[in-house]
Model the fold of this input.
Amino acid sequence: MKTNLKTLLITASIAVLAASCGEDDTDFLIPIGETKEIQIDSSVYTHQTYFDLSTETKVLTVNNSDWDFEVETTGEMKVIKLNPAGRYRVFKTELTDITEDITLPEDPDWTYDDPSGETDELAFYGWKDNEVYVLARKIVTYDPTTPSIMPVAKVSFSHQSGGIEVKWVLEGETSVNNAVLPGTGSDQPSTWFSFKTQGKASVQPPKPDSYDLIFTTYTGEVEDGPISFDMELRGVLTNMLNNTMSYRYDPGDASDEEYIEIFKNLTREDIDMTEFDDDCDEIGHEWKKFNRNSMSYEIDKSNMYFIKDGAGNLFKIRFTNFYKEGVKGYITFTYALL
Done:
């Protein structure tokens, strides 16, 4: 029996179409110009949410306490990042033996990961095998006799064959714990570590190219007149690993209602490509302000940003709420692909 050429072509086209629309295919974009309103359904006070703009996807949501630090487990294996929501501070000692007792100085030089995301601004930047650090956590206290930073553990790291060994001694204990985090592939370049699981955390970071924004608590510097100090902030960080960049658009002075219209009418022509910044904290937390009279956060109605993801897609975004049913920490935003 002869097979009709037209039938063959139709069959082949159907097969290609079916393959391109498989259930594992998530490489698609939201419609251009269509405004999306999204509410992150977990509070940044308790969770971190990783969000991809082009697919309108909440890629991953984890409890703030699910992991403690992130270790680069591929390539040169040099980068170690603190969980930004962990309120962690780090003190570098002069020791290389984790079993030795440590007496902290009266005023320790505590450091933390700068929210810019720059590698040389990380607390563990330039670490060497077996160097001992004190890992501490900042706490909220109204008792002047209670330290605001409390040690959690002594930690050290070392390169092992095909991975990174973590050693730690919990505060108040003497036993040394250790775990080796095996090397990973380039598609999963780092591993989350957790004290609770005594090694690799039960959840792991999403792939670097799978998200653009992290809704989270993080530590940053705040200025109050001539004084600056570090504190825990709640906001949005961009994903440097995916080359996501952003900048705040200045709409000028206008009424609250006019700001809505200004944002609605923003197009690609309003973007200044030279303004994009790879600082992870470019969006940050300042799209809201704390009102001391009402003791609540209010949205800065003039906030609007442009974002460029790693694939070169351009978006506009505006934050509209920080509460859900009166409970703070639930971020709502509107955005569109341009």
In short: Confidence is low (pLDDT under 50) at residues 1-25. Residues 5-20 form the longest helix (16 residues).
